[in-house]
Amino acid sequence: MDRPGVVKSAGRVLEILELFARMKSPLSVRQMAEHLDYPLSSAAALVKSLESKGYLTYEQGLRAYLPTVRTARLGEWVYDSLAHKQGLIHLLMELADRTGHTAVLAARNDVFADYIHVVPGQYELQLNVPQGTRRLLCKSGLGWAILAGHPDPAIRDVVIRTRSMLGRAAQPITYDWLMVNIREARIRGYALSRSLVLKDVGMAAMALPPMPDGSHLAIGVGGYVRQIEKDLDDIVGAMNDCLRNSKAARKHPVGASTKGV
Amino acid sequence: MAENAAVIKSAGRVLEIFEYFGEKRAPLSVREIAEHLEYPLSSTAALMKSLDVLGYVSYERHLRAYLPTVRLSRLGEWVYEAIAHKQGLVELLARLAEKTGETAILSAENDIYAQIVHMVPGDYHIQLQVPPGTRRLLCQSVIGWAMITGFNDAKVAGLVARTRDLLGRAGASLSMQQVMAHVEVARARGFAFGRSLTTKETGTVALAIPQPEGQAGLAVSVSGLWKRMEKSREAIAQELRHEVDGFLRMANEEKSARARARG
Asked: Which has the closest alpha carbon to A67: A3, A22, A109?
């Protein structure tokens, strides 16, 4: 529906692309008009203009439209820019320098935690995970840190969607199993994963306060699990300091973080 | 009709603004946007406000400028998968996984990454599982090297520079020579092959699917335990070649059928 304070057709063009993203299927002009409650003629005009600019293509065989690669590429660069905002890269470098381990920044994307920036550590034995790695929120230290700041019903919803997506491969992810780890993270103020995805790898992680644009981020320090366990106090201290000093955290007081939730 | 013309105008402007952000990849002020795209300042301000209310851009107070949010990147994320289904590439992966017993993967070129679009797991007890959406650096992955085989040197140089820039410290040791060494081997062999840089126990055979000019690159690959892949890489490369050739033949036939239908 049209929203106050929004230029009508600016909102509508995005609503059409959102409808496609939600339905994940080809759509006819009539379907779009019905779903979005637009007059058929204005839906047709919008679709024609999206088609002429190369954002939608008409599929003869399906008698319906589909977005094009041009639409897919519209925002593909935005993810990486997240890390460059608000001095977060600087924060990661400080964390890697202070702990000697690899520092990772992750963003929640649906039921996943995406690694959007990685600063390698200095130990000879160091975690080598590239930027672009994707983990399940339910099955990663960084994911647990992000989830710990969410209310329980929201976590249950993530579990349900993850399990239905994974089918048989969902083991060991159950709500009860996850909540044991989440409660532990809430009490401690940080999440700790040990050999959860990669054998011998440990990751200590904390969530950042929610960003103004609604994205959920977390920082983590990872490496050889025994070394991480040994250095845990220093790592947690460094993460707390970095978060306190970061611009992102200063803007939003610590009360919004997962600590003590 | 007059109303529709106005509708089309601001709808088009929204997309032009996002394209301009994609070009600059930096925060932009209302004035910069208005000047570059030659829109009136007042309507640009109204559009940006709208996009802010809708959650597609956020105002960075300290910069006095706007930046797109992840919401924008989510709009298009699913599109590659839809395209893969439409073009029969999902069936192609299923055939590859069945014939080789290993995990078959389709990836699309996405900025400095190869993004995994679809995966069909193999049937060995030990098999690779990578969630779709995972991104591998083009410069540092076997799938990426396969895609880069189709790039010219200037494009590779640009990619390396941008990757170094985005990786920060993790990209410090990356060089054009390093990337080209892998790419030249892949060009000579006709396919890219190597040990995964992320999961050392796995190996990958990858082949680019040539795309029309201006389209995002695609690649198919087969991954499995390194020991198995080392032995069967030639046979797997042959299967990949066979499937990609078949796919391209079909695409060409469809294209000429469409051209005929149009007269």
From this structure: A22
Q: In this model, does residue A156 exceed pLDDT 80?
A: yes
H/E stretch holding B109 reads strand B103-110
Of A253-257, B163-167, B193-197, the poorest mean pLDDT is in: A253-257
Asked if B33 and B41 count as a contact pair (C-beta separation under 8 A), the reply is no
Domains plus CATH for chain A?
Answer: 8-73 (1.10.10.10), 78-256 (3.30.450.40)
Of A7, A18, A119, the CB nearest to B168: A119
A10 and B168 within 8 Å at the Cβ level: the answer is no
CA–CA–CA angle B147, B148, B154 (5° rounding): 145
DSSP H or E segment with residue B202: strand B202-209
Q: Which sequence spans correspond to the domains of chain B?
A: 2-73, 77-260
Give pLDDT, residue B125: 65
With CB atoms and an 8 Å threshold, state whether A11 touches B54.
Answer: yes
Asked if the peptide bond before residue A172 counts as cis, ω within 30 degrees of 0, the response is yes
Which of B3, B4, B39 is best to mutate for the A interface (most A CBs within 10 A)?
B4
> ipTM, 2 decimals?
0.73
Domain B2-73's class?
mainly alpha
Sorting pLDDT into bands at 50, 70 and 90, what band is B163?
very high
| Nearest to B56, CA basis, from B75, B77, B42 | B75
Residue-by-residue DSSP string for chain A: ---TTS-HHHHHHHHHHHHHHHH-S-B-HHHHHHHHT--HHHHHHHHHHHHHTTSEEEEGGGTEEEE-HHHHHTTTTHHHHHHHGGGHHHHHHHHHHHHSSEEEEEEEETTEEEEEEEE--SSSS-----TT-EEEGGGSHHHHHHHHTS-HHHHHHHHHHHHHHHGGGGTT--HHHHHHHHHHHHHHTSEEEESSSSTTEEEEEEEPPPPTTS--EEEEEEEEHHHHHHTHHHHHHHHHHHHHHSHHHHHS-GGGSSTT-
Q: Quick check: B241 and B207 in contact, CB under 8 A?
A: yes
Superfamily of domain B77-260: GAF domain (3.30.450.40)
B9 and A CB contact within 8 Å: yes
Compute the distance between CA of residue A198 and CA of residue A135 in angstroms, rounded to an integer: 11
Which of A60, A76, A214 is closest, CB to CB, to B111? A76
